[in-house]
Amino acid sequence: MDGLSELDERITGCRACPRLVTWREEVARTKRAAFEDWDYWGRPVPGFGPADASLLLVGLAPAAHGANRTGRMFTGDKSGDFLYPALYDVGLASRPTTESADDGLTLYGTRITSPVHCAPPANKPTVEERDTCRPWLVSELELLAPTLKAVVVLGGFGWQAALPAFAAAGWQVPRPRPAFGHGAHVVLPGGPAGAGLDLFGCFHVSQRNTFTGRLTPAMLRDVLRTAALEAGLHPNGPAQ
């Protein structure tokens, strides 16, 4: 196994946060009626995508009946139903739909991760849980550093969680720290490989944002396409 595969295995065995362990396992036992025939994953959810990705997407945390059920980032919930069609439209995913971890979906040059790997109650990790989980993200960034060129952070929580991780992994984060905003673009100098990193902000693909129109498919595609170009992926835009 490569280093990233080994890291993913270690993540799935983590039991560092008692509240999150209790919640994720309780959800996996009680299930949701619509998924009563599912064997829930019920563990920390590792990142998804190739080990030589040049573009990284950073979310928030797994959804209780989404990734906590399927075992793959943004798979099995409405957020994934919004995200993956955009990735497909931009040429970063092999298909626009995602249902389970074994549905054949492939990401091209792109990896998805989160600063918290366990599903939290009410989708709200505590600051302590966020900080406890940070070393996993730092290790992931260090392993991706030889190829990583751009990052899209989904939402303000992810932004605040990711900036210290970038600093710990060797990139230079400006002071004061850059503010989150949709379409925000910051270049972080340095890094383990000595190359800068293009950091982009994007509203999270949560139902609160997508159902209200705060984040539209076009807005998401625009950020993904811009970041992909900076990552050297030469994406294909949807038909105009």
What order do the strands of the largest sheet run in, or round the barrel if closed? Answer: 2-1-3-5-4
Taking the sheet with the most strands, its summary is: 5 strands, mixed
- Please give the share of residues in helix: 25-40%
β-strand amount: 5-15%
Span from first to last CA? Answer: 42 Å
Report the radius of gyration as a whole number of Å: 17 Å
Oligomeric state of the chains in view: single chain
Can you write the helix and strand succession as a string? HHEHHEHEHEEHH
Low-confidence spans: none
Shape: globular
Class of secondary structure makeup: alpha/beta
Helix count equals 8
Secondary structure: number of strands: 5
Query: On the 0-100 scale, what is the average pLDDT?
Result: 95
Describe it.
It is built from eight helices and five strands; from the N terminus they run H-H-E-H-H-E-H-E-H-E-E-H-H. The protein is α/β, with parallel strands linked by helices and 240 residues long. A hairpin with an 8-residue loop joins strand 4 (185-188) and strand 5 (197-202). The longest helix is centred in the middle third of the chain and has 18 residues, at 127-144.
What topology emerges from the helices and strands here?
Elements: H1 3-12, H2 18-30, E1 55-58, H3 67-70, H4 78-90, E2 110-113, H5 127-144, E3 150-154, H6 156-168, E4 185-188, E5 197-202, H7 207-210, H8 217-230
Parallel strand pairs: 1-2, 1-3, 3-5
Antiparallel strand pairs: 4-5
Helix pairs in contact: 1-5, 4-8, 5-6
